[in-house]
Amino acid sequence: MHGKQLTKHITSSARSNGLLNISKANFYSVKIPTPNLAEQQKIADCLSSLDELIAAQARKVDALKTHKKGLMQQLFPREGETQPRFRFPEFQSAGEWECKTLKDIAKITSGSTPSRSNPEFFIGGTIPWVKTTDLNNSFIVETEEKVTFKAKIRINPVGSVLIAMYGGFNQIGRTGCLSVPAATNQAISVLALDQQSVMPAYVLAWLNAKVEVWKRIASSSRKDPNITGSDVASFTIVLPELAEQQRIAACLSSLDDLIAVETQKLEALTTHKKGLMQQLFPSPEDAAA
User: Which of 64, 99, 175, 234 sits at 20 to 30 Å (Cα–Cα) from 116?
Assistant: First the structure.
């Protein structure tokens, strides 16, 4: 509530080294409606208990993510090796995995960006168009923008695995797997896999486990961090037989589902707290009345 009061005191002239600021006089002039001490205590206790619940839920989500990271380190071979440290019992005598590059298992392409000067390419669009910001390291069912058939852009099939090649370190190496046919922009490498021998979900999990390798490649002796089509083509992947790929992908997918559920609970608690505070504290208009 008091944030709205502070905002009124910030003007274009209230800057220091490009940063917005507010004077002490204006800061201390902000009025805070205050109930009696007993009611203050009740409100504080209510919000404090909710904060503790949110913190506990956040720790649970973090623990699950840490568990997944450790599990991937067990399920996939270390760099330079062809056997993982852990194999499911039914595959313990299945032999070594096969080392390949992404160009060995996929046709690799990239997309394009239709000209934004032509509104017919975007208005009323029904074709999902994936940008690096749409990549979620999981399965993609929706995109921020869609294009029309007039854009004449390549549509990739379900099961295509996507890799962000540039867009800053927060984007490089991010992945996705298409659950719907979709086009992409030029910042994304598209892997069209032979799904008779390679599972998209396994490739997705492998790439997610190796994101730090992408970042190392992107930062090596380059003015602007990025990875190239050649980097993608030569990237190493170690493959077991299809049945074992399926088993690993199913294990990690079930853990992803659990993480998603617990993350939704955390978001719901955070939203609940925000709504509760709006109910517990008067608005500036009510306070002034």
Answer: 175
pLDDT tens by residue, 180-230: 999 999 999 999 999 888 999 999 999 999 988 888 888 775 667 788 999
Which range of residues forms the domain containing residue 105?
98-239
157 shares its domain with 120: yes
In this structure, are 50 and 134 located in the same domain?
Answer: no
CA dihedral for 60, 63, 65, 68, sign (positive or negative): negative
- Domain with residue 104: its CATH number is 3.90.220.20
CB 170 within 8 A of CB 116: no
Contacts (Cβ under 8 Å, ≥6 apart) of 19: none
Q: Which amino acid is at 109?
A: T
Digit-coded pLDDT (tens) for 161-177:
999 998 877 888 999 99
Question: What's the whole-model pTM score?
Answer: 0.81
Spatial contact of 128 and 146, defined as CB atoms under 8 Å apart: yes
Taking the C-alpha atoms of residue 93 and residue 84, their distance in angstroms, rounded to an integer, is 13
Query: Total domain count for the chain?
Result: 3
102 and 142 in a single domain? The answer is yes
Question: Phi then psi for 110, rounded to 5 degrees?
Answer: -140, 170
Q: Two tokens at 64?
A: 């699950």
Closest CA to 55 of 63, 65, 67: 63
pLDDT in tens, 50-102: 999 999 999 999 999 999 999 999 999 988 888 899 999 999 888 889 999 99
Whether residue 85 lies inside any domain: the answer is no
